[in-house]
Amino acid sequence: ITGGPLGRWQQTNRTASIPLGLRQVEQGGSVPNLRLAAGEGKGGFRGYRFQDSDLYKQLEAVAWEHARQPDPGYEAFLTASAELLARAQRPDGYLNSHYQLVKPDLIYAELEYSHEMYCAGHLLQAAVAAARAGAAPLLPAVARRLADHLVAVFLDGGDDGLDGHPEVETALVELYRLTGEGSYLALARKLIDNRGRGLIRDVGLGPLYAQDHLPVREADTAVGHAVRQLYLEAGIVDVYLETGDRSLLDCSVRRWEDLVATKTYLTGGHGSRHDGEAFGERYELPPDRAYNESCAAIASLHWNWRLLLATGDGRYADLFERTLYNAFAAATSTDGLRFFYVNPLQRRADYSADRYDGRRREWFDCACCPPNIMRTVASLGHYLATRDEDCLYLHQYAPGTIRSSDVELAVATDYPWDGRVGISVARAPATWRLALRIPAWSRTTTVLVDGTPVPVTPDERGYLVLSNPREHVELRLDLAPRLVFPHPRIDAVRGCAAVERGPLVYCFEQADQSADVDELALIPGTELRVVGMQDLPGVGRTVLIEADARAIHQPSGGLPYGDHPPPASTAVTATAVPYFQWDNRDGGAMRVWLPHPFEGIR
Amino acid sequence: ITGGPLGRWQQTNRTASIPLGLRQVEQGGSVPNLRLAAGEGKGGFRGYRFQDSDLYKQLEAVAWEHARQPDPGYEAFLTASAELLARAQRPDGYLNSHYQLVKPDLIYAELEYSHEMYCAGHLLQAAVAAARAGAAPLLPAVARRLADHLVAVFLDGGDDGLDGHPEVETALVELYRLTGEGSYLALARKLIDNRGRGLIRDVGLGPLYAQDHLPVREADTAVGHAVRQLYLEAGIVDVYLETGDRSLLDCSVRRWEDLVATKTYLTGGHGSRHDGEAFGERYELPPDRAYNESCAAIASLHWNWRLLLATGDGRYADLFERTLYNAFAAATSTDGLRFFYVNPLQRRADYSADRYDGRRREWFDCACCPPNIMRTVASLGHYLATRDEDCLYLHQYAPGTIRSSDVELAVATDYPWDGRVGISVARAPATWRLALRIPAWSRTTTVLVDGTPVPVTPDERGYLVLSNPREHVELRLDLAPRLVFPHPRIDAVRGCAAVERGPLVYCFEQADQSADVDELALIPGTELRVVGMQDLPGVGRTVLIEADARAIHQPSGGLPYGDHPPPASTAVTATAVPYFQWDNRDGGAMRVWLPHPFEGIR
After folding, report:
1. Rounded (10°) CA dihedral B496, B497, B503, B504
2. A183 contacts A191 by C-beta, under 8 angstroms
3. Which residues on neighbouring strands pair with residue A465, listed in sequence order?
4. In a domain, B601, yes or no
5. Nearest to B491 among A261, A281, A288 (CB)
6. Do A99 and A122 share a domain, yes or no?
7. What is the spatial distance between Cα A333 and Cα A343, in angstroms, rounded to a whole number?
8. Alpha-carbon distance A414 to A398, whole Å?
């Protein structure tokens, strides 16, 4: 990736976010805690039970970044951290600074909230990243000892414990892929098979919270803590991918279809409730109180990527793209130094200084999101393309080079600001195919192969498959802005419309309006006008969209129910900015959904 | 009160709810805890820090019920409880079983969440009720010793501590009214004056949670935990009433006006968020995730009653009535044996078995609501009428007798099922006035005095004042059902309408529909047809309302955003039942607000 938003995010990740994260693993306690566990340093354990995981995610971010663009400082950090972890690790392989320091008698005894396997999983994933980056060979060794300890206790030892927070399942499968050690896969499978059987002690949040209400093959809908459900799904598909157990894929696809149709925000975000950081009921999708935890967007990327690998179906790449450019990207400020934990689709002018909502923050007491974002941004290059026997699939469009064994493509594009994607064939065998994902939102798509237009008839999985393109393919996606409407069952945004362009969801920020954003209503069927590319202070490079609207002045006072007089209103232009770029200026109101009345307003 | 819904609630309270509550104060631990504090019995403390308050509210309920209709069993319970409390009380007057048993070293040291003054306040209120009922004279003595201890520590002793949960303020004023002891009023005033000055340690919920963000005279809007804000307001008005400090009344009225216009549900309920049991932002009023804690409705009754006493303004009696018949009444099942903690305005068919929502329950681990309901129902007779020099004000209409020193009225009515209220003057001086509240919802009101129609021109406070009615007054309120619409700023119910009749908000329960209640949409401007009085199994005596609607069949599948095909729909009759009677049949879906599109549906 050499440019575009993805390239810029990677650059900012390297120059701003990762340095911040490296300071925070010291300040937040993760590294000092592990020093204490290694018998070094003074003081007491600091932070949450899962504080180790902040470091592990940071290690993974640094490892992927090192793989992307090597840096001796990164290598030194990875090596020093691996050595620290090796010193902190118990001789039997167990490693968790909180339990070693604070609760040595309760190791694996309170898995419902201990996050021990969750932390272990993040270490395993960091180790896989380090191995792929060719750095810190001690890290995979530490990870294997810890994984072997998990296997000894929970597979060979017969302990049927399950971590309240799924995460280790995918990590075990990844470590299996790296090492070929079948017991890791077997343990991942056992953990998934055993979920939903009441093996997790209820600590007052109910069995839905941790997806322990039904075996995974029986559950029909996503419930409880959103990140937990989504990490679990990724693990389920991972185990399917390595075992071929079709019942796992089937149940996960069934829940995906339900989730997409009834519990997914326009931005791709997941989790309708602050209470329990949870999924809501079907069609419960409030824009203002959307939780949409940044980590849930990441977990959704993991799941959709694996479903794409498992099925080749472009609908997973479509949702991946929607989530990437909206729910995920909005979590980070343009400068890479502030983060959202919660990603609502509406902020009112009088939002209160609550625990989560409001403005992005530099860091959080519970800092699961920022390093999770960093490891994802650093590894974005993994998600662009796949290859099967003779076909190279382009799933996401970004400028750069796509290399496979015998195919090399140069992609030139200003996507998603511009719909044209130029693909130059630098190297290819005599017989091959190129599959281009045609996003479902592109209404009129044009493709030229070596200068000649070809019919754009995507296959049933949403891909246009080209045989033996020789020199150049040009894809022209339709970036005409679109008014989109919610399904009538989504109560919270009834009578509203939103604006999209390409993969980007737009929003209306107070900073761009001449009227109170909470008083705006779109003129039915308004024209949507693209304002040319500009560099907006704070926001960065962007494309704005203008719509015709009315500012409605409805008097208030007394109970707000009854017969309201026809409101006065004035004609205004409403200006929309990409959602992922919001909250980079002031703390004003923001709305993705604007009222779009059916009847004229005086 | 001799009949009507209020009379029935009082009867059910006596025969079903109070007996249940009396069992629960034993089973839940309140009485056993106090026995332990008295050095009697065995075992450990059970329940929450504020477990004592369950007993205190139960004592208050029993005392009011004993005043209403004496019963030797009630008297024995009050006396035995007072004796137990006297034995449990420390020699210095302190009394709180949790802190005496579990945390004797932390008495008054963690007031931010200890609920010690909250519990004390409920004891004081129980004692006032017992005194007014002429029962258990030991109870006021125990309460005075505890109040004196509070005064010694927090007024004379100079301790500036504040309870995280307001409640004691009103109780101290009530005890001052009973005893004339000025230090109780002085302490209440100090607690109110000191709030919002950062004297409450933040335990991670932020200063808004316990209204410690701004001094009460400076705060403009209700924030944080709803019950806390509303109890605080009642205390503020109580202190105004006894001190004449107008700045207290002014700030409370300012917040009332803001609250009513922007943070009040159609049912009168308060608290838009499960997270923090809190008020939301202005116009944040989701019907499905409405918290509307039953205790918040009770606290609102307290506040509005005091504002009515302070100002004579009928708008407070109007909101009192709305809250009484809807937010408050819905908390209890028809049989008086099950309670809602949370009172949403919508339940979807697939609501999950969450911590709070769903069906009414017999009891709760945190059982603040049921005994709070019982004490309120038992004392409903207090809220019907007031008297000043020569005028008797009728605020609420219920069949029964209204007695003042030299006035006695017999009220005959089937209100709110029927709009006719007959008032017979049994006794009255030669010169007097009768003021009838004309509810703001009554569009066409007729009044006959001694058989002669009189012009119905309410004064600026919403009362029709009649001079010297001699024999009979007949008030005919307009019970024509009404379609009501939300203010356009209420995002969550945009494009919807609700049905009201008299003071009753209606709702659409699945049990009464021929189509999926979540697919119903009202025909714009539909006729509303009153179905005559009936006795509906489970629900009891009720009046249903029918409306013309369409059942909309919109296909689902894939992301629920975009251009939806015009939905097919079928004509149906939608049938509404009073909201306070919902959830007395099955656990099906319910909606107060139904879509009311502006455009025709195919």
Report:
1. -80
2. no
3. A435
4. no
5. A288
6. yes
7. 12
8. 8
Q: Which amino acid is at A61?
A: A
CB-nearest to B262 from A554, A560, A597 is A560
- Separation of alpha carbons A5 and A437, rounded Å: 19
Put simply, the answer to whether B560 touches A262 (Cβ < 8 Å) is yes
- Amino acid identity of residue A96, one-letter, is N
Residue where a domain terminates, one of B364, B383, B402: B383
Residue A602 located in a structural domain: no
d(CA B13, CA B335) in angstroms, rounded, equals 9
Quote the minimal CA–CA distance from B558 to chain A in Å: 5
Q: Are residues B401 and B359 in the same domain?
A: no
Burial environment of residue B306 by CB neighbours within 10 A (0 to 12, 13 to 18, 19 or more): buried
Instruction: Give the mean pLDDT of A373-391.
Output: 97
Same domain assignment for residues A41 and A62: yes
ipTM: 0.94
Are residues A374 and A409 both part of a single domain? no
Q: How far is CA B502 from CA B440, B487, B505, in A?
A: 10, 20, 8
Number of domains in chain A: 3
Contact status, residue A438 vs residue A421, Cβ threshold 8 Å: no
> Which active-site residues of B does the annotation give?
277, 368
Residues of chain B in contact with residue A519, where contact means CB-CB under 8 angstroms, are 489
Instruction: Provide, as residue numbers in chain A, all residues whose Cβ is less than 8 Å from the Cβ of B503.
Output: none
Q: For A292-323, what is each residue's pLDDT tens digit?
A: 999 999 999 999 999 999 999 999 999 999 99
- How many other C-beta atoms can be found within 10 angstroms of the C-beta atom of residue B129? 28
Q: Are B91 and B37 in contact (CB under 8 A)?
A: no
Q: Are residues B398 and B467 in the same domain?
A: yes
**A214 contacts chain B (CB < 8 A):** no
B457/B517 same-domain check: no
Chain B interface test: which of A48, A351, A561, A563 (most B C-beta within 10 Å): A561
CB contact under 8 Å between A485 and B354, yes or no, is no
Question: Are A404 and A395 a contacting pair, CB within 8 Å?
Answer: no
Q: What is the pLDDT of residue A357?
A: 61
Residue that is last in its domain, among A476, A500, A516: A476
Catalytic residue among A65, A116, A277, A474: A277
State how far the Cα of A200 lies from the Cα of A147, in Å rounded to an integer. 21
Beta strands in A362-503 (DSSP E): 385-387, 391-394, 400-403, 408-413, 420-427, 433-437, 446-449, 452-454, 463-467, 472-476, 482-486, 496-501
Residue B166 lies in a domain: yes
Phi-psi region of B344 (alpha: psi -120 to 50; beta: other; left: phi over 0): beta
Q: What is the pLDDT of residues B346-359, one digit of tens each?
A: 999 988 755 556 89
Distance CA A270, CA B425 (A): 64
CA distance B525 to chain A (A): 12
- Return the exposure string of B26-38: e unless at least 16 CB atoms fall within 10 Å of the residue's CB, then b: eebbbbbbbbbbb
B254/B319 same-domain check:
yes
CATH label of the domain that carries residue B434? 2.60.40
Residue range B55-108, pLDDT digits in tens = 999 999 999 999 999 999 999 999 999 999 999 999 999 999 999 999 999 999
Contact A413, A6 (CB under 8 A): no
> For chain A, how many residues are written?
602
A251 is catalytic: no
Distance CA B551, CA B208 (A): 43
Supply the mean pLDDT for chain B: 96
| Residue B413: closest CA among B4, B108, B66 | B4
Which are the contacts of A244, defined by CB distance < 8 A and separation ≥ 6? none
For chain B, the straight-line distance linking the first and the last C-alpha, in angstroms and rounded, comes to 50
Query: What's the pLDDT at B355?
Result: 56
Q: Which domain holds residue B545?
A: 482-595
B361 touches chain A (CB under 8 A): no
